[in-house]
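Quick one: examine the sequence and fold tokens given here and explain what the tokens say about the fold. Here goes:
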Amino acid sequence: QGFSAAVGSTSDVEITLSLNTSSSSDENVLNSTVNLNANQGSAVARGNVVVTNLSVDGTNIDGGTGANDSVLNGATGTNTAAFVASSDQSTASGLVSSDSSSMTVLLDLTSSTTQDTDATLKTSTVTLSSNRSESTATSNNADNTLTLGSAGSTSALSATGGVLNGQVINGAGTLTTATGGMTVTADIDTSGTTTSPTTVNAVAGSQLSLASNVSTATATGNTADNTLTAISTQITAGTALDANANSDTPLADAGFSLLNQQFVSNGSGINLTSTNTANTVSALLTAEDTAVTTSTVTLTGNSFSAATYANDAENTMTLGAEIGRASCRE
């Protein structure tokens, strides 16, 4: 796969509850529960995306290669295994951008009163929690899976197998940018004129929580998930000699081989950037008298993060057999 274009993704999410009470003797929210929870805004931009899944099953699996090893050569992109799941991706002068910074969750409560015991939020529970904003930008994405045999059905496995992944970013002007952000606000305002004693509050006898809201921005050049699984009662693939791997070539030589090669050039004009600065979690409480009385206001567990990865890979090899002489190398 090759990529040299512009790919962009932008999410614009606004969750708003606005209540305005103009009566001179009424609370805005009374003996009630108000939740603005678990809302999500997500912007995802990806350049190259490949999913390779090869599954071979049977009682006896013979790839016809005899006792030869699985040899994967990253320099030439070649292999000698009987079964191979592979991918090859490159990015040159491509722009991948995602932006989720405009997500807003707003509770706006306003009341005006002349009563001494009124409050905009009274004997109630209000939560603005577990909202999530995610911005993800990735140039090359690969998911390669090879499965040989299965438990209970395969009695002999002599075929070699390999998983080979190659990802390269080397073009000037290649940009991968992720911009995140979120605004969570509870704006509770009580205004008015009362007789003595003045006891008009914004929040009275209530629970107000702005908690566990999450904003993330992640920019990645190359990301891969490579999995090789071989299961049989008897595994005899390969030469049974020591497995060999060379990161300089790169080269993997074994009965079963998994080779992941990722590269981001240090040339000018190649940038991977994540930004997550436009974040606000706030409770704006205004009253003629005490803003909060006999209440609990919580702003805890909110999380904001920005992460940038040039190369990110997860490689998993699983071999299962009762007896055998397979050699392996990751």
